[in-house]
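As the next step, I wrote out a protein sequence along with its fold in token form, included below for the reader:
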Amino acid sequence: MRGGHPEPDRTSSHPSKVAALAREIRMIKALTSYLLAAMTAWMPVRNHARSEAPEVTEARYEQIAADVAQIALDPDETPLFQGEDGRVKTALLLLSVALHESGYRGDVDAGRCKPYECDHGKAFSIWQLHPEDGLIFDADVFTFARNRPATWREEHASEIFDGASLVRDRKLAARMALHMLRYSMKNAHSLAIYTGEPGNGPKAKLRMQTALSYIREHPYGEELSAAE
């Protein structure tokens, strides 16, 4: 299980399944390259030179882009935007939020925040998620463990995620961030709940504008139909 969801069975050698898998891999690779370009445009690798070697940053960036691409292209996840490029916009928004929350910093990515950072140790992952008493996937959004009965929490302990879980598994963190963004967009029609602002505040607007401006200036040209 990765990112809170079981991995699909890919052991079959049936030609149609092999072709579908090959198409999925191509789509993930293409979107990963596109997202990597966005990340490096927003936060160049050289900006991390004081804390990690360029080759380390480059490898980490590529893995972040690949993780986000896999989550955004997951057919079990409804994109945050409509249209043919809805999944690309979803992926860009995830990366825009991570940019403005953490700057893709390696220490934050690894869960090594300074005592006064990461909301004084209460926020985890490059998306700065607040697990509080534990996060739970709730259909296409999320909830906190306290909103489930004690008996449920005991029987489903493996479905409750704390900060350490989010740091260990970046795809899990990306999926949870997606569900939290979806909750905000459903209930506030903006990212205001995610950013903790009244109305569509400046932080919420900036995160959205960063993502949407990039795709306007750099349209995505690859086929995405296999993810639908």
Notes: The radius of gyration is 18 Å. The mean pLDDT is 93. DSSP finds ten helices and two strands in the chain. Residues 46 and 226 are 36 Å apart (CA to CA).
